[in-house]
Q: What sequence folds into this?
């Protein structure tokens, strides 16, 4: 039986939805700050209609669980929960930092990525990722929110710098990495396609959760005091 997985991401300036049927993925993607609520449902409807499917036909749902824009992450989580509750569909929450690393690896062919999202308040959401021999994307240490000057940049190895954190705080982050920076993808966003690929692997390992457990991950405790989101 074919596996039909619907993935969403609204965690950053980019908004995207992707439908995977037996690993073949089609995606709608648009960089559109503040338009996610208006765009995401249309993207989902278009993907399902083109495939001749209804939401009840989906086997697995996935979404970018964060970190990212407080309101943005909530949009994808809310839509996924609504579909999951309505049809009792399992959900795979996927790290948006891991998705950025996946996109960066695909674009560059490199296997080591320092993913950073601008977290506002003079901080970045940070994750260090490598690619295993089997293609699996592996988190080194923990995902954190941190001041750019205190970001735990590895002391060895060459790395791809990816994400809006590098664009916003490159004057602090890039000197610390120096000539060990292979390239810098300052506008590298997570995508639903990357989330779908990561979710398929996670689902096959039994890492799905119920609709009630499909909740955002903010990394920052005081999310209520954050400035108004630009997404």
A:
């Amino acid at each position: 039986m074919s596996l039909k997985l619907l993935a969403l991401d609204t965690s950053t300036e980019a908004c995207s939805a992707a439908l995977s049927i037996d690993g073949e993925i089609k995606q709608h993607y648009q960089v559109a700050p503040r338009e996610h609520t208006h765009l995401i449902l249309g993207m989902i409807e278009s993907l399902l209609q083109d495939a001749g499917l209804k939401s009840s036909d989906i086997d697995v749902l996935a979404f970018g669980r964060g970190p990212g824009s407080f309101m943005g992450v909530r949009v994808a989580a809310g839509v996924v929960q609504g579909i999951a509750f309505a049809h009792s569909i399992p959900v795979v929450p996927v790290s948006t930092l891991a998705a950025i690393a996946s996109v960066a690896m695909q674009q560059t062919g490199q296997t080591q990525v320092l993913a950073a999202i601008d977290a506002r308040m003079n901080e970045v959401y940070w994750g260090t990722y490598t690619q295993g021999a089997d293609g699996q994307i592996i988190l080194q240490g923990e995902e954190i929110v941190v001041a750019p000057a205190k970001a735990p940049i590895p002391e060895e190895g060459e790395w791809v710098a990816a994400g809006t954190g590098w664009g916003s705080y490159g004057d602090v982050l890039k000197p610390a990495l120096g000539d060990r920076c292979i390239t810098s993808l300052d506008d590298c966003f997570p995508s639903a396609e990357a989330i779908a690929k990561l979710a398929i692997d996670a689902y096959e390992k039994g890492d799905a959760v119920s609709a009630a457990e499909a909740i955002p991950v903010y990394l920052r405790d005081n999310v209520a005091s954050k400035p108004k989101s630009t997404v």
Notes: The first helix runs from residue 36 to 51.
